[in-house]
Amino acid sequence: MASPAAPLVNPAKSFIKTLAESPNLTSIPSTYTYSTAPLTEPVVSGSEESIPIIDFSLLTSSSPDQRSQTIHDLGKACQDWGFFMVTNHGIPESMMKGMIEGMEDFFNLREEEKKEFQGKHVLDPVRCGTSFNASVEQVFFWRDFLKVFVHPEFHFPNKPLGFSELSHEYCKRVREVYGELLRGISKSLGLEESYIQNRLNMEDGFQILIGNLYPPCPQPELAMGMPPHSDHGFLTLLIENQTGGLQIQHNHKWVNVKAIPNSFLVNTGDQLEILTNGKYKSNVHRATVNNKATRISIALPNGPSLEDIVGPAPELTDKETNPPRYMPMKYKDYLELQQGNRLDGKACLDHVKILK
Is the peptide bond prior to 323 cis by the omega test (within 30 degrees of 0)? Predict the structure, then answer.
């Protein structure tokens, strides 16, 4: 039974921010208890030296040698980690800071205002809520979110003032960075630089903006901001307010990610694993919480067109030595499958794996 200091809250009708700001909150409701024992899995500190860093200015350099080396490093990061940081990407620090501040202002709106954007279906273009999918979960996560479809059509809440216009420009700039990363990844696979864009109509590629709020939690060792999962698209580019909490899985251990200021945190997604027939595996990651500070992050998962069918690239498979390991599936169906169920590692990807 929850203690008197842990009020019962229906996540489908309220936000975690409201619960976290309850007076004298000293424990969490049982419905938010992700683990009955403190989370004690081995976690290692990720230094700026160990997690791969891709200098974007070298990826776009006019020097063939510099570019070739960076493409090699990018491919190695995708294969060994499924995660890397991107520096010197050209997006102004003031714009990135403005995005974090705008997202904070959105979550600071009155609850009634945020509920205007709740949405009803996982493919609604604007959706605000809490946890991940409160309608199917038995344990809820210490997180509020805003999910907005921003490309090929741009949708956005009309509050707070000016945030929509800033986000429109920001998402456009991120797509430019994403496009260059995809070109480098194509080249690292031994394909033409434009292979992925041409094969999957990336001009109409699907992009979502996801804002996450993780307020202080009185029992962070029992709660989870987001459970271990992989992302559904090709690449997700994320920024945060320098409050740690992101952990990535590497060599069967959890690694704390310490972001370089003004960098993008980039992880590979399920569609890239499918396209490369498993050579570049999607990264499993999670969000932990703390009892001192609010973490805000903004993630931009980027994928193919919703109507594209993604399967292993024929150029990367061989019937005898490397047969296709994944069944082709329309991206819209894959997205709906993942967003409409509980998050559970790579459970969604297992649906399209070809069992041998």
Answer: no
* Residue located via tokens 């989870």: 224
CA distances from 307 to 55, 105, 148, 301, 318 (A): 33, 34, 18, 16, 26
pLDDT digits (tens, 9 = 90+) for 58-73: 999 999 999 999 999 9
| Tens digits of residue pLDDT in 165-184 | 999 999 999 999 999 999 99
Distance CA 243, CA 214 (A): 10
Sign, CA torsion 314/319/325/331? positive
> Within 10 A of 29 (CB to CB), how many other CB atoms are there?
18
CB 324 within 8 A of CB 299: no
φ and ψ of 145, to 5 deg = -140, 160
| Coil, strand or helix at 239 | strand
Q: Which of the 8 DSSP states describes residue 62?
A: S
Taking the chain, what is the end-to-end CA distance rounded to the nearest angstrom? Answer: 46
Write the CB contacts of 268 (distance below 8 Å, at least 6 apart in sequence).
78, 82, 83, 234, 235, 280, 281, 282, 283
Cα distances (Å, whole numbers) of residue 151 to 168, 186, 203, 236: 9, 22, 9, 14
> CB atoms < 10 A from the CB of 314, how many?
10
Q: Which domains does the chain have, with CATH numbers?
A: 52-350 (2.60.120.330)
What's at 35, amino acid-wise? S
Alpha-carbon torsion (303, 309, 312, 315), positive or negative: negative
Beta strands in 154-240 (DSSP E): 207-214, 226-229, 235-240
